[in-house]
Amino acid sequence: MPSGTSDDARGRTRRSAPHPGGLANSHRLAALGEAIDQKAGIKHKTRVPKEARTGWRRHKAWWISITSVVAVIILLLGGGYLYANWRFSQIPKLNVAGEVARVGNQPFNILEIGSDSRAGLSGYVAAQTGASTGQAGGQRSDVVKIMHVDPAKGTITVLSIPRDTVTTLLANQNLYGKANRLNVNFGTGPSLLAQTITANFGIPIAHVIVVSFAGIINAANAIGGVYMNFPYPAKDAYSALNIPHAGCQLVTNFQALALVRSRHYEWYEGGKWNYDVTSDYGRIYRQNEFIKGMISRAKGIYNPLTLNSLLSKLPAGIALDNHFSLGELIGLAGKFHSIDPANLLTYTLPTTPGSYGNLGSILLVQEPAMQQMLFKIFGTQLERPTNPPPVNSAGATPTWTIPTTTTAATSSVVIPSKGSFLVNLAASTSAPTTTTTVAPEGDQFFDPTPCTPK
Question: Are 422 and 414 spatial neighbours (Cβ–Cβ below 8 Å)?
């Protein structure tokens, strides 16, 4: 059974340890972050103990990792706080309603939204993404990831929710009905999407990051591209992905966007083109692998000109909620400087194909696997959903039970999704409901993975 810690067994290349002393003064950076926040009038409820500010070795997350690590490196290279603050001020800020405040050393969640907005695109790239055919208006959440950060345990886990998952709507029911795809909630901005996730799944959101198509291209270009190993030539006629040769190669510019957008992935093997039938699940997996590659690449950048290019391009395609301060980013960067992308634990919400109204091809949450996975990741931080998602075409909603015990008697149920998700569901009849053992998603032999060029 694959797991997030078995990457070496699959032949992946792990990054070497960070350069000794590269961030030896991380405790000072954390203190600087607190001082910056205090000067700006931002108050924290509790001070994080010193011993809890060490040992964070796992993946921080996609764009937050890049921006925070780069900001700290610039400070170390003499860029200075004023420069970092100026660059940070250029990143658009979002007013997100319903966010919960971070409390000391307690776990918190960051909602990462990949927007299909074509703003900032032009020419060939705009044409390839549909901007020239009238499809660029508005925005939808093509990617929804929730990063669960647990400071006390020193772990970070990412949960992806497929965009076609049907959720109970909190607003716009006159337009979309009582329930509809998750991504329709992003049309007016991130607030409704964040509130819908909390209402449907009980996941409290502390921070929000939004990345557009232009943001992916700009960040990939700024770090000089991402090295990915393709076991076979690959293509996607819909996203315009075109990888004519197998092997470890640099993915940059429009091809970086085409890879993370690919839902109709094909690979050439045995003299023919083969089709990945997993659709959005496959796209989610490839996105997670590309994220790992980006983080590995960004961590190795020490050229001031490259760093400046990255920081200058990030504002054109990335936005943070207005509660995310520079001081917090600096503090997080100091704690996460030794992250190993290979240890990133990723999960995808258990769903099953189904029908609901006239929505066409959609996904319905799978029970009890959904609740089991949510508890595995978020534990007692979960809130009782106020508006649970429908589980069948009749609109029935699940009975929410939070698992609290574990029994030895189990039976295995395979979740029909990307990779090898395996949930051991308790067979005990005793109350309350039991917990489960949930393995992170595995990989498919034909998908690309991060690599190091020889």
Answer: yes
Q: What pLDDT digit, counting tens, does each position of 282-312 carry?
A: 999 998 899 888 878 877 665 666 666 666 7
Question: What CA–CA distance (Å, rounded) separates 339 from 15?
Answer: 10
Cis peptide preceding 432, ω within 30 of 0:
yes
State the Cα angle at 280 between 274 and 284, rounded to 5°: 100
438: helix, coil or strand?
strand
The CATH topology of domain 92-321+341-454 is Aminopeptidase (3.40.630)
Name the residue with tokens 């076609």.
164
Q: Are 68 and 333 in contact (CB under 8 A)?
A: yes
Cα 4 to Cα 157: distance, rounded to the nearest angstrom: 10
Q: Per residue in 168-186, pLDDT tens?
A: 999 999 999 999 999 999 8
pLDDT higher at 121 or 199: 199
**Distance separating alpha carbons of residues 287 and 359, to the nearest angstrom:** 26
pLDDT confidence band for 153 (50 / 70 / 90): confident
What single string gives the DSSP state of each residue in 99-127?
Answer: PPPP-TTS-EEEEEEEE---TT--HHHHH
Spell out a b/e string for 407-434, using b for 16 or more CB atoms within 10 Å of the CB, else e. Answer: eeebeebebebbbbbbbbebeeeeeebb
User: How far apart are the C-alpha atoms of 29 and 31, rounded to whole Å?
Assistant: 5
Residue 387 has φ and ψ, to the nearest 5°, of -140, 75
Q: Which residues of 129-154 are buried (b: 16+ CB within 10 A; e: fewer)?
A: bebeeeebeebbbbbbbbbbbbbeee
Q: Pick the residue with more confidence: 24 or 183?
A: 183
Q: Per DSSP, what are the bridge partners of residue 159?
A: 146, 347
